[in-house]
């Protein structure tokens, strides 16, 4: 491509009153312009059609869509509304998935698929089996081969329980110390230490 061959590289109208001539459009310039436009249309895989006046627009839209396709995971450029709404939709398969909520009378010993499970009801937790506490909360599960790990956090955020299964045997639940219990435990341990010193 090149600019038109005038001193300022611009097109000019002629002026009959002064005898000024208009810019002469050369075959070289027209051929260059045609070549530039045609190359875009053909690069998009579109067959030239003399009866259409929007092929350049179609070509640009297609080239942009094709270039963006790997980023859009197969969705059309013009269909933004179908952007994936899950990690799996973006090809991320190793994230901790949010599982359906835990229902009534669920045995936590039967929950071994990796994911996050929410128990939103105290009564449902109380009616279930092998809960570490009869309160609502979040169950975290990670399973790997013969091992399965569970953590349960109560909805008040005061305590965390954990246990592990090896083959078919679950360990007992272990519990973190609730923050509200720490001062009393410190007092007890301090008194014990002072007693031993006397």
TrEMBL record:
<protein>
    <recommendedName>
        <fullName>Tail fiber protein</fullName>
    </recommendedName>
</protein>
């Amino acid at each position: 491509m090149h600019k038109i061959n005038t001193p300022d590289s611009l097109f000019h109208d002629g002026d009959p009153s002064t005898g000024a001539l208009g810019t002469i459009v050369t075959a070289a310039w027209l051929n260059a312009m045609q070549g530039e436009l045609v190359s875009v249309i053909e690069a998009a895989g579109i067959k030239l059609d003399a009866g259409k006046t929007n092929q350049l627009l179609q070509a640009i839209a297609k080239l942009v869509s094709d270039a963006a396709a790997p980023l859009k995971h197969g969705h059309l450029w013009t269909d933004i509304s179908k952007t994936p709404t899950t990690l799996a939709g973006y090809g991320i398969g190793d994230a901790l998935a949010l599982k359906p909520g835990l229902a009534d009378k669920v045995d936590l010993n039967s929950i071994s698929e990796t994911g996050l499970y929410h128990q939103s009801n105290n009564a449902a937790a109380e009616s279930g089996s092998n809960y570490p506490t009869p309160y609502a909360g979040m169950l975290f599960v990670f399973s790997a081969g013969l091992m399965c790990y569970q953590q349960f956090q109560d909805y008040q955020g005061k305590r965390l329980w954990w246990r592990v299964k090896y083959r078919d045997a679950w360990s007992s639940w272990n519990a973190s110390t609730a923050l509200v219990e720490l001062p009393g435990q410190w007092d007890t341990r301090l008194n014990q230490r002072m007693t031993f010193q006397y």
